[in-house]
Amino acid sequence: MKRIQRTLLPMLIILIGLLILFVIYNQKQTVDIDKEMPTQLHPVVQEKKEAFINKAASRNIEVVITDGLRTIQQQNELYDQGRETEGRTVTNAKGGQSYHNYGLAIDYALRSETGEVIWNIDYDGNGNGKSDWFEAASIAKELGFEWGGDWKRFKDYPHLQMTFGLSINQLQRGIRPDKERE
User: How far apart are the C-alpha atoms of 101 and 41, rounded to whole Å?
Assistant: First the structure.
């Protein structure tokens, strides 16, 4: 019996220590710095968005920005789509978990020759034998955007973001990129 007690006591102490470390670590990760949520796109994202539209237009591709900054409520409504409400699932990010919520992401579509806004990734409106969608994504990446079409698990073809090296966790804690940072 004493052998069991001698073995269990150190294990219990180690377990309690690990539990304390876990609690401390999680508290550190969730400390909120008092920062207001952005009310518009980050200035660099705004500038690169305009450059994206213009550069695509120079290749006879009409890009339409369909979304930019989203509120937490708007993000939650999108998250519920296909889960709580009708429609297909369009995001895996709840409110506060998307770069859109911090003014660091945009979504795009294309305008067809007939003027219709389309999300057809095979469309070749400029007639050069290449997908306009992928040409536009390439332009965006040249400008410094990360493209959701490159993601391994959930391909989000309309999505472009600039993280400035910040994780969602850091953004949730109130850390923001510099206004002129590229």
Answer: 9
Which helix (H) or strand (E) segment is 32 a member of? none
Residue 117, both tokens: 């806004």
Q: What is the pLDDT of residues 82-96, one digit of tens each?
A: 998 888 888 889 999
Per the confidence metrics, is the pTM higher than 0.90?
no
- Same domain flag for 27 and 51: no
Domains in the chain, number: 2
Q: Which pLDDT belongs to residue 35?
A: 77
d(CA 182, CA 167) in angstroms, rounded, equals 16
User: What's the rounded Cα separation, in Å, for the pair 32 and 27?
Assistant: 10
Give whichever of 24-38, 79-93, 152-166 has the largest mean pLDDT: 152-166
Nearest to 137 by CA among 120, 150, 118: 150
* 151 DSSP assignment: -
Whether the Cβ atoms of residue 103 and residue 41 lie closer than 8 Å to each other:
yes
Residue 81 lies in a domain: yes
**CA pair distance 111, 125, nearest whole angstrom:** 9
